[in-house]
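Memo to structure team: turn this sequence into structure tokens by end of day. - J.P.
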Amino acid sequence: MRRVLLCVALLAGSVAGGAAHATAPRCDSRVLVLSAMPVELGPLVAATASRTTVTYDGHDFYLGRLRGRNVALALTGIGPVNATRVTRSALSHFRCGARSALSAVVFSGVAGGDAIGNVVVPTQWTLDAGKHVVSADRRLIAAARRVAHAGVSLERQAPAGDPACGCLTNPDQVATVAVTTTPRVEVGGAGQTTDPVSGKALPCVPGGGDVLGCAPCLIQEQAQRDAPAAVAGAATFVDPAFFAGYSSPVEDSKKYVVEDEETAAVATQAAARHVPFLGIRAVSDGAGDPLGLPGFPVQFFYYRQLAADNAARFTLALLPRV
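Reply from structure team:
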């Protein structure tokens, strides 16, 4: 956390994204790739070619080519309320007449789980502690298993990252400790999405860095101009109740291979529109920490870049098979 505050204090600017606003081709088939936070979407946006931006219902969608696929990438923001809104907006606007122009929805992000750095691809998701379950698409699960079998190079050394989106040109250029376990891909099991903030739509913060920000670091512009807004908007997250909700024990949590705050909400919306869905989550807080840090949020802030990078690596390997 101290690294985050220090980097924010040193903000003098950020890298412009180079994305031009454009009108979305209405009938291009695309894979919708979602993440909750800038740190998660950043590696995928950086790898996207011919990038343009469209805005629907106040949400930016980054269009382009990624690993041979037409994609639309977007941040949902933190929490199931935000995730529901952005997914619903995408499903409503990316249309080709009566049918969806989205061939699949993929979520790439970090989560709590077994061992830091592991990539977990659950076959089922629940938003209400198992009362209702949404299944991931069988074809996408089969593709995920093939990618896992072929092997994906996953990071073990934790990058320092770029918490303020401006201190480093490459968030992976400064390495810290290595986790004590060897990261691997796990396909199967059930994932759980919780709502620790009780139905609130948490706002993003303009210029708010790689966790609270409203855009990937590559696209956050004029962070110094937005610094006053960041201080005001961050008040929601400074409230002790925010982290208290995350720290509360989840009933029967051992049933689930990963726990997050968005994926099942996205899966529910995709299922309602009959669009294939897959959730990919890499572990940011779990076992394998050589520093012995307490769990969330301390481990999350230290290992979020490692987990985000590993989730993105798997997502990039999967896209050619989607």
